[in-house]
Write a structure and sequence with these properties.
Helix content of chain A: over 70%
Shape of chain B: globular
Strand content of chain B: under 5%
Shape of chain A: extended
Largest sheet of chain A: none
Strand content of chain A: under 5%
Radius of gyration of chain B: 22 Å
Distance between the termini of chain B: 25 Å
Radius of gyration of chain A: 22 Å
Order of helices and strands of chain A: HHHHHHH
Oligomer: heterodimer
Number of helices of chain B: 21
Number of helices of chain A: 7
Helix content of chain B: over 70%
């Protein structure tokens, strides 16, 4: 058992535990802490895969920006911690669980014996530079369209969140 | 990459996209600088002009050979041209509709309305003409995110808020699922270029690898089925269609759906047609997955048509009817005859005309009465005979009565089901049976309009834009119904999309 394997086990465990915890705790703040655990351990997994740039981005954007923005969103809006038990029938719950486990089993069967041949050895060489070069040469069109997506998201967020002040004024 | 190498590409083939992008940007700036109390409707005409310019430039590009820019991240081929044509025509009609949209509560922010339509259209256009997983995905997201916002633009309307929320959550999940499937494909091929992936995958012989690849196929198909609103992933459609502003509903049911089928065709045919798989002859993973797609098509037709029977709300009724139509289209995909793309193109064109026409009239009626109940259509023939007759044409076409475009479209898909070896009798019979079921609710609408006492006595005022849309759609529906060869002559120049895989 190599150190890499141990690190993978630890990180994967924390990532999954964070996800499960997030679904099960009721307080919003607790949810965020659980979510941050997941995000950071996923960043650790990226490091294991020699994707340091993606790992850094993951920490910056997901654990940093997105979590903070969501916190702001929660703090600036009204929210009561209402606990409403949905009238979900028991058989529906079981059926969902069954479907989840069936899907898990099917995927597990597929990937357990999967053999990709040898391992890649050149992953760590100048990988940030390679991402940059690919992004600004080969993938320029999707890169530009992504900026349009960001514009749309920005406009949309403002339009949907803006208060209609005219009604108050008149 | 230096500037000179960049300039070597033929950027001219992207003119329609550039026009739409430019108009959207300029519109957003104008909207920003315009005084707040000014009416935003003129912006709509500007947007419409932009779409028409894009359409003209696309027609100018029709004769251009297959062109690829930057490793296929953008490619203009016959498939892209044909479907972009549909998208642009659909979007221009929807824009015409949206300018006369006047719901009961005062709806503001009209400026955003127009340029979000344009960005959504841009996303859909990118989806039609790309040979790269990343570009396809980015286009899909641009379309989806713009649509989420559009659905929620009636901010004072509770249902609209609900619909936007439902749409964003369902859409987000489906996007994640699609991306997960794509990541498997990328993992096997190590490339995002569709052609390179196809070459890599066709060398796959190991059965456990094929198993995982088949899994990826199904995951991707499930994710994209959300976008097509096919059963059992259709749950979001009725709520979103009901809550969203009517032009947005029209956009979702026509342009968005077309884009969904475009990406399905592009992805699955290119990637999986030549992947070996065990069991079936000729060995192709696409063919061995046929049964699953066929099952989905059958379920979609049955569920869409039977639930539509119970609907009283017209927008919900049309939502279920659009689910049913997605089912018919999936039949075209599932049987995989050699005329598949042609027949689906024709059906989408017919569907565009008849559905947009119906939505135009629906918008007038629901705006004026403030109610979306089917009883508002009662006695429309007495109030406004011309409108009732035109609506009758659209309903007949949706039902698939001979003499209309809807009939021809259905017949071609139907023939496709028999043109393959072995023929798909079960699927074809489900299609017939559900079409008959659909007569019940389509003719329910018909009897409301022609044989029921009048619901309200004030005359129906039809704005110019809506009249134009209705006229174009009715003309198109009838012309394509009587002389379908016109559309097929148009398609002939593409030679059955033979450059699709090259």
């Amino acid at each position: 058992m190599s150190g890499e394997y141990l690190a993978f086990l630890g990180l994967a465990l924390v990532a999954i535990a964070g996800g499960v915890l997030m679904l099960n705790v009721t307080k919003v703040m607790h949810m965020f802490v659980a979510l941050v655990f997941t995000f950071i351990s996923i960043a650790g997994l990226y490091v294991l895969l020699s994707a340091e740039f993606v790992a850094a981005v993951q920490v910056l954007i997901y654990s940093g920006a997105i979590t903070i923005i969501m916190l702001f969103g929660i703090m600036l809006t009204r929210h009561q911690d209402e606990e409403k038990e949905g009238a979900k029938s028991a058989w529906r719950k079981w059926l969902t669980a069954l479907a989840v486990f069936a899907f898990g089993a099917v995927v597990y069967r597929g990937i357990y014996h999967l053999d990709f041949g040898g391992q890649a050895t050149h992953l760590h060489e100048k990988n940030t530079e390679q991402i940059g070069v690919a992004l600004y040469s080969k993938y320029m069109i999707p890169f530009e369209i992504t900026s349009v997506i960001l514009l749309v998201a920005l406009v949309g967020a403002i339009v949907l969140a803006k208060k209609e002040d005219e009604e108050v004024g008149s | 990459m230096s500037w000179d190498t960049l300039l070597q590409y033929k950027w001219g083939v992207m003119t329609p996209e550039f026009v739409i992008l430019g108009v959207a940007t300029v519109l957003s700036l104008i909207d920003l600088l315009m005084p707040n109390d000014k009416d935003r409707r003129p912006l709509g005409w500007f947007a419409l002009a932009g779409v028409i310019v894009a359409l003209v430039s696309l027609i100018g590009l029709l004769s251009v050979d297959r062109t690829s820019i930057l490793n296929d991240t953008f490619r203009l081929d016959a498939f892209g041209k044909a479907f972009k044509f549909l998208l642009l025509v659909g979007a221009s009609l929807v824009l015409l509709l949206s300018m006369d949209y006047k719901p009961k509560e005062n709806m503001k922010y009209y400026g955003e309305f127009y340029y979000l339509f344009l960005t959504a259209l841009l996303g859909a256009m990118i989806m039609t003409s790309s040979g790269d997983l990343i570009t396809l995905f980015v286009g899909l997201e641009l379309l989806s995110i713009s649509s989420y916002i559009l659905a929620g633009l009636r901010k004072a309307h509770r249902l609209s808020n609900e619909s936007a929320m439902k749409y964003v959550i369902n859409g987000g999940i489906s996007t994640a699922i699609t991306l997960f499937g794509m990541s498997y494909v990328f993992g096997f091929a190590g490339s995002t270029n569709l052609k390179k992936i196809a070459i890599q995958l066709s060398a796959l012989q190991d059965s456990s690898q094929q198993y995982v690849l088949a899994l990826a196929f199904l995951i991707m198909f499930v994710g994209l089925s959300f976008k097509l609103a096919s059963a059992p992933f259709h749950m979001w459609a009725p709520d979103v269609y009901q809550g969203a502003p009517t032009p947005v509903t029209a956009f979702l049911s026509v342009v968005s759906k077309t884009a969904g089928f475009v990406i399905v065709l592009r992805l699955f045919i290119t990637l999986f047609a030549s992947v070996p798989s065990q069991g079936k002859e000729p060995s192709s993973m696409l063919l061995s997955m046929q049964d699953y797609i066929a099952f989905l098509a059958g379920a979609t037709m049955i569920i869409g048509n039977t639930i539509a029977l119970k609907q009283r709300n017209v927008k919900r009724l049309f939502a279920y009817s659009s689910i049913a139509h997605a089912g018919y289209l999936l039949v075209g995909f599932a049987v995989m005859s050699w005329v598949m793309i042609d027949s689906m193109w024709f059906y989408l064109a017919a569907y565009l005309l008849m559905n947009l026409g119906a939505f135009a009239i629906l918008q007038v009626i629901t705006d004026q009465s403030g109610s979306e109940d089917i009883s508002q259509f009662a006695g429309l023939y007495r109030r406004q005979p011309l409108l009732a007759v035109l609506m009758g044409i659209f309903v007949l076409s949706l039902a698939g009565i001979p003499g209309t475009a809807g009939f021809i479209g259905k017949v071609h898909i139907f023939i496709g089901a028999f043109a393959t070896e072995p023929a798909h009798y079960v699927l074809a019979s489900i299609m017939i049976a559900t079409t008959v079921v659909s007569y019940v609710y389509y003719f329910g609408l018909f009897t409301q309009m022609f044989f029921r006492p009048v619901a309200a006595h004030e005359s129906v005022k039809v704005p110019l834009g809506v009249m134009l849309v209705v006229a174009i759609c009715a003309l198109g529906t009838i012309i394509l119904g009587i002389a379908p060869s016109l559309a097929y002559n148009f398609l002939d120049q593409f030679q059955h999309f033979s450059d699709f895989l090259r």
